[in-house]
Amino acid sequence: MEIISYREALRESMESALANNDNTIIFGQGADDYKGIFGTTIGLAEKYGKHRVQDTPLCEEGMTGICVGAALNGIKPIHIHIRADFVFLALNQILNMAAKYKYMFGGHYDVPIFIRAVIGRSWGQGAQHSQSPQALFSHFPGLKVIMPSNSQSIIESYQYLLNEYSGPVISLEHRLMYDLNFDVDRDQIRTGKDALASYIVREGKDVTIVATSIMVLEAVRAAKYLAEYGIDCEIIDLHSTTDIEHSLIIESVKKTGKLLVADTSWVSFGVAAEISRIICENAPQYLTAPVVNVGMVPTPCPTAKSLEDLYYPNLESLISKIINLSGSGKNIPIPDEKSMADVYKKFKGPF
Amino acid sequence: MEIISYREALRESMESALANNDNTIIFGQGADDYKGIFGTTIGLAEKYGKHRVQDTPLCEEGMTGICVGAALNGIKPIHIHIRADFVFLALNQILNMAAKYKYMFGGHYDVPIFIRAVIGRSWGQGAQHSQSPQALFSHFPGLKVIMPSNSQSIIESYQYLLNEYSGPVISLEHRLMYDLNFDVDRDQIRTGKDALASYIVREGKDVTIVATSIMVLEAVRAAKYLAEYGIDCEIIDLHSTTDIEHSLIIESVKKTGKLLVADTSWVSFGVAAEISRIICENAPQYLTAPVVNVGMVPTPCPTAKSLEDLYYPNLESLISKIINLSGSGKNIPIPDEKSMADVYKKFKGPF
Amino acid sequence: MTSPNLYTKLFEQALKIRLVEEEIIHRYPTDKIQSPVHLSIGQEAVAVGICNALTDKDNLFATYRSHAFYLAKGGDLNAMMAELYGRVDGCCHGKGGSMHLAAPEVGFMGTSAVVASSISNAAGAALAAKLLNKNQLNVVIFGDGATEEGVYHETLNYAALHQLPVIFVCENNEYAVHSELKDRQSYSILEHAQSYGIATQKIEKGYDFIEIDKEFSKIADTVRTTGKPYFVEIMTCRYKEHVGPGEDFCGGYRTEDAVNHWKSLDPICTDTQMVERLSPAIMQEILASIEFAENSPFPGLEELYQHVI
Amino acid sequence: MTSPNLYTKLFEQALKIRLVEEEIIHRYPTDKIQSPVHLSIGQEAVAVGICNALTDKDNLFATYRSHAFYLAKGGDLNAMMAELYGRVDGCCHGKGGSMHLAAPEVGFMGTSAVVASSISNAAGAALAAKLLNKNQLNVVIFGDGATEEGVYHETLNYAALHQLPVIFVCENNEYAVHSELKDRQSYSILEHAQSYGIATQKIEKGYDFIEIDKEFSKIADTVRTTGKPYFVEIMTCRYKEHVGPGEDFCGGYRTEDAVNHWKSLDPICTDTQMVERLSPAIMQEILASIEFAENSPFPGLEELYQHVI
Ligand SMILES: Cc1ncc(C[n+]2csc(CCOP(=O)(O)OP(=O)(O)O)c2C)c(N)n1
Ligand SMILES: Cc1ncc(C[n+]2csc(CCOP(=O)(O)OP(=O)(O)O)c2C)c(N)n1
Ligand SMILES: [Mg+2]
Ligand SMILES: [Mg+2]
User: Fold this and answer.
1) For residues A14 and A78, is the Cβ–Cβ distance under 8 A?
2) Which of A2, A301, D208, D300 allows an S-S link to A130, with CB 3.0 to 4.6 Å?
3) Name one Pfam family in it (chains C, D) (predicted).
């Protein structure tokens, strides 16, 4: 068991990709500078050359198209965006080209491009630096979308996707986790397709929580707290929003009868909706209570801290929702924690 | 009662917008040419001037930004795309700017831009000319999205949105309906916000069908057929995917216990998912059977007719799914109709 | 001095493309080709002249208007016809149709129906060629309208910045659908491209495949040697409507005279002797390709679900 | 000949901006300003020189680096400070923060944190001004990096095609975050803009507000008369790190010497007499604005749900 931060796991994954495959090239605004994309590419340009760790002009659509073309001709591009919001400039290449190139041409081509985009709250990022577009990407066949919630997840899924998989991938990395430390067990690294699978983080019998990205950590914290009061949560880390393990969720709901979905984006047309669809198409009868969904409030993201704290989910609201859903525990005290950002800026783990 | 085609309703709405408001400007590639965007702007440049019915260069992101800026300074732009797929080039302006300008600046500005985009099958359009991005847009607060399914719907909702509403709107118009004739009753025109509301197209007690766009017509055809065999469908035209009437759906499901969602796009992370969410959050106990969802197959759109007919829903599969869902009628014959496109190319209505 | 062989060779290629598309027009009313067709009739010389300077190892990226380039690059006619007919033996198993042809075996890398989308792909492929020392040209064809899209600017900048061995070819037929250049562009395409420090050349006689071959061969050699980007604008004329099998002079956006002038210069229109001499053999090939297409099965569920990821 | 009054007036404005931002630096460690700040220190003269040629009726669109432009255009200091402090009396009720300032009452139309996004908005506003006969200028400020985005090309083309009364102002500080111009651009910004047939001017002395005012006033007059677009490039220098309150010479991407050279030309650095004379009154105003901000309530649930549509 080692302790590795999310950032270190990313940096390690970037370095192995370069080391394992001469054809891997990293592209990103500032990929070669002294900050190295929040530390995840630091030193790599020096070691592997600026042609393999490339700074780029500001041209998201063009660079994505260049990555697609390079991928068609033997390169394995990794394209990094420091905010997922900027990827909206590149959606034509992602949705109309990368996602369809293989299908449209009858299987002639693979497009092995790996897009890393940073999502989520840090502070005061406002409406244009805070979005989490997993739902958008996951609606379009042809893409794989992952949302790693810890270092192990990064190491195993990046390893699989960068070495063995040959289609377009989008990885959404949560900014607030970069500084967090996690236990990593290299003997337990999931390999092959398994590295994408949703999995049970914590077994429980009262409530099923399906969570993505940092909301997995929030769920774990809530579950720990509630365990002391006799509420036993089962937590599923969805991990990939395109490769959801239906049976895992259905079996869990069969056991608990109660479902809460916690995602980093808006609820409408989001992950919450998709999980409800899976239940409704397969086993609505297992639900013994209405589903509860937790995500961003249905407004653009405000900047002021006081508004952010209302806008984003927090432990207090999460716990009270779980208590309500579980139907028990009217007397459980609710912890006073209104800001997720405050916690993750202080707490460094290991988680 | 008049008979007005979808195309005529669109052309009429465009003309009234120009006539009613001197500040309305129509932008679109080919808006002033002899084909006039599938006939919906024909003759308007001649009558109102080329500065009010503008042909544009090929620059979707730039033109959308120009429309946003014009809207901030007194113009009411209507921006038309002959394929919704091209709008992917403009998503930064739509999602990061138009949808957020009002909120981000504390209510200082309105952005009254009205985007028309054509969706859906005609034939052989392939992967890049056939997408239906209602789910994508509806996930982002700040936008209104409508999917009119008949001429009356166009007339009433365009009238409200172009004259009274002042935020960004996306209207997705289905290509296969352009040639269809519909009965329009001008005395029954819904006004104000009501013009956006979901509504019951047909009352029934056995199965609830929530449908969008052309799938409403398909549902009506299926319901007519099944009525003869004793299956009584209730059909809800969702009309707007951002202003869904939750209670309408919930009440209907309460009555029927059975839900089928029929949408023009992919099922995952789509309208089907959102409707399931609404049920799951409110009243999963009303469901007496698993929900059934109908949409495009989870692949990019193929071009060959034989594949299109498998890719898109058709009456045959819709009817057999309703029969299964209803749980009755094992002996009902299934009509042999495998291609929706064939029907709408021949049948002109009135619907 | 043009060798008579070269003239015959290129004429034959251009004529084949024309006859293929005329046959498509002829068959279109049968509704067996269920895909929109953007015909190159009038523009064949561009494809033929350019592709003659390329080898199968060189890559070409193109647009929805690409029957001509597919064939000139060496794409199989049977496979193209089957693709238009939506059959399983089509070059993309029927999943592409007329707007999405590909023939990787001869470096025909695919075509996009979203204007300008392939331009950056070609630059990316050129980057790969450079980094992987492939000694390979990457060429992209696009229309005059495509230069208005933002990604065009982004790509020219990147290609020039990294000195990539890519050749940008703008097929300027002066129209985007029904809109004239002057109603869409404030810049001269060539001067604008020069502002990125990219070497440029304009070829006015877009009907003259010999001229295009001569000029483009020089350019291709230059790029093979220098490894630097090049920009070529070729003036040309689309005889038919933007999409579909018909003519559209009734549309009023251009006159038949303007097109007739171009036809009066077009060898395939004027050299009737050559046409007569070469047509019979070509027609046999075309009819065989239609038979091939019509005999090929329709794709089904297996193809539908294949090749998504 | 510059009137002493003009020098004092513009100096005072520039100094006010500098002192405001220095106060922000000073207060930043308290964590009360919970929003990333992109400081304009070193670039104030650009804002001051340009805005002096504009009236409240003229519109200005800008970027995340816009404290200077907000203030120079006449935006209220209290409202800006409250916005940075995330308070309800902020110019956007705390919903914008440092990256999203607006002051419609003086034509400061908003700022985008997505590079280049406002450029097309300004052209659109100019179109509206033209069609509605507003006799109004629309000006947009953007960095050198913004010219790399595709939408820049699309907008220059449209503005030139329709001859819109818009002024494009490129604030060229030679860096996008830590990347130098030469690593990003293959074109000369000015020559590239000229290729659209847009009139251009370059101002080298971006520290000299008098010079900028003089040149920009002429340009503004020209555009008011001709109604045609204009492009202005102004060289300038950012003294602080790209985002945040610190310096970053440790980053190695540029040297302190290079910045010091610029400082040696910058009146706010060199004219210490003026600084001494004007600072006290300005500082009072600034401290009052901080008090105003700190006394303003935090926005709550009502503001959260307001103004979505
Ligand atoms: C991004 C995008 N916008 C609009 C269209 C619709 N469209 C198809 S072809 C075309 C004209 C393109 O003109 P040009 O680039 O000159 O090529 P040409 O058709 O003349 O060969 C347009 C506007 C599209 N396919 N893609
Ligand atoms: C579309 C987009 N891509 C990337 C970024 C990240 N980013 C923020 S500022 C900046 C540099 C912009 O440089 P420039 O336009 O020269 O303006 P300056 O910051 O120098 O004033 C970058 C890359 C962004 N905000 N938006
Ligand atoms: Mg053209
Ligand atoms: Mg800069």
Assistant:
1) yes
2) A301
3) E1_dh
Chain B to chain D Cβ contacts (< 8 Å): 146
In one letter, which amino acid is B44?
L
Neighbours of chain B (3+ CB pairs under 8 A): A, C, D
Q: Cα(A87) to centroid of ligand 2, in Å?
A: 14
How much distance in Å is there from the Cα of D176 to the middle of ligand 2?
6
pLDDT digits (tens, 9 = 90+) for D36-53: 999 999 999 999 999 999
Chain C interface includes B92 (CB < 8 A): no
**Mode of pairing for the β-strands spanning B292-296 and B259-266:** parallel
Give the domains, in start order, of chain A with CATH numbers: 2-196 (3.40.50.970), 199-343 (3.40.50.920)
CB B45 within 8 Å of CB B31: yes
- C242 shares contact with chain B (CB less than 8 Å): no
pTM, to two decimals? 0.98
pLDDT tens, residue by residue, D115-169: 999 999 999 999 999 999 999 999 999 999 999 999 999 999 999 999 999 999 9
Q: CA A349 to CA D128: how far, in whole Å? A: 55
Pairwise CA distance, residues A99 & A105, whole Å: 12
Tell me which chain B residue has its CA closest to the CA of residue D94.
B106
**Per-residue pLDDT tens listing for chain B (351 residues):** 899 999 999 999 999 999 999 999 999 999 999 999 999 999 999 999 999 999 999 999 999 999 999 999 999 999 999 999 999 999 999 999 999 999 999 999 999 999 999 999 888 999 999 999 999 999 999 999 999 999 999 999 999 999 999 999 999 999 999 999 999 999 999 999 999 999 999 999 999 999 999 999 999 999 999 999 999 999 999 999 999 999 999 999 999 999 999 999 999 999 999 999 999 999 999 999 999 999 999 999 999 999 999 999 999 999 999 999 999 877 899 999 888 888 888 887 777
What 3-state class would DSSP assign to C299? coil
Supply the DSSP symbol for B92: I
Could you tell me the two tokens for A142? 């042809």
Measured N-to-C along each axis, helices A60-72 and C117-131 cross at an angle, to the nearest 10 degrees, of 50
Query: Is there a contact between B99 and B143 (Cβ–Cβ < 8 Å)?
Result: yes
Q: Please, are residues D24 and D84 in contact by the beta-carbon 8 Å criterion? A: yes
- Which residue of D157, D160, D195 is in closest CB contact with C195? D195
Q: Which of D105, D135, D147, D151 to mutate to test the interface with B (most CBs of B within 10 A)?
A: D151
Question: A191 CA to chain D: closest CA distance, Å?
Answer: 38
3-state secondary structure D71-116: HHCCCCHHHHHHHHCCCCCCCCCCCCCCCCCCEHHHCEEEEECCCC
Q: Is the CB of C146 under 6 A from ligand 1?
A: yes
Q: Name the residue among A254, A119, C98, D266 with its Cα closest to residue B123.
A: C98
Can you give the residue ranges of every domain in chain C? 6-292
Cβ-count burial B280-300 (b if 16+ within 10 Å, e if not): bbbbbebbebbbbbbbbbbbb
> CATH number of the domain at C6-292, please?
3.40.50.970
Interface with chain D: mutation pick from B50, B66, B196, highest number of D CBs within 10 Å = B66
Q: Which residues line ligand 2 (CB under 6 A)?
A: A 29, 58, 60, 86, 89; D 65, 113-115, 142-146, 173, 175-177, 242
Closest CA to ligand 1's atom 19: C176
Compare all CA atoms of chain B with the CA of A298 and give the residue at the minimum distance: B141
Q: What is the residue with the minimal CA distance to atom 25 of ligand 1?
A: C114
Contacts of D124 (CB under 8 A, 6+ apart): B65, B66, B67, B68, B69, B70, B71, B72, B73, B75, B77
| Smallest Cα distance from A172 to chain C, Å | 19
Place of tokens 């908003």: D110
